[in-house]
Amino acid sequence: MPESYRPHLRKDDDKDRTASQSVTTNTSVGHAKVQDILDQKKGQVVTIRPQQTLHEAVEILRDNRIGALPVADATGALLGILSERDIVRKLADTPGHTLPHKVEEVMTRNVETTTVDEPLVTVLRRMTDGRFRHMPVVDGDALTGIITIGDVVHFRLNQLELEALQIKQLIVG
């Protein structure tokens, strides 16, 4: 019996087709690390010495429009961190006599730090659980940067926008 005629169908070409996009490639969440934020910040870390006064610290915070200062020694080793919250607590304890105090008297000594290789999701969890907004980035004893909870949230929002765009492109084609 003769075979009936069948027209050429698109699926006949499937073996020759390639795809540059797939659901997996367009929706996979990258494993962002602290280094990804530092790459975007492009700035030197503003620090303060432990012997400086709170008056100097307040001026540095104001002039640089930042909320915390890593406290480092002359070699750059991290000794602590001084945040706006630390200063406010001291203001409440010693009203009118706060600014002459030394940074080392007020700073937080037990500092949570991170490294450039730590995943951002872990850093965000640590910051949220510990209820702090600034985390110094260290390499051994050397201070290499500082990230804020705002940096992490901003980075993640940008990632989510990109993921949404990629999904939309996948749907539209």
TrEMBL record:
Residues 40-99, 107-162 form the CBS domain. This is CBS domain-containing protein. PROSITE patterns: CBS. It comes from the Bacteria. Residues 19-28 have a biased composition (Polar residues). Keywords: CBS domain. Residues 1-28 are annotated as: Disordered. It comes from Algicella marina. InterPro entries: CBS_dom, CBS_dom_sf, CBSX3_CBS_dom, Diverse_CBS-Domain.
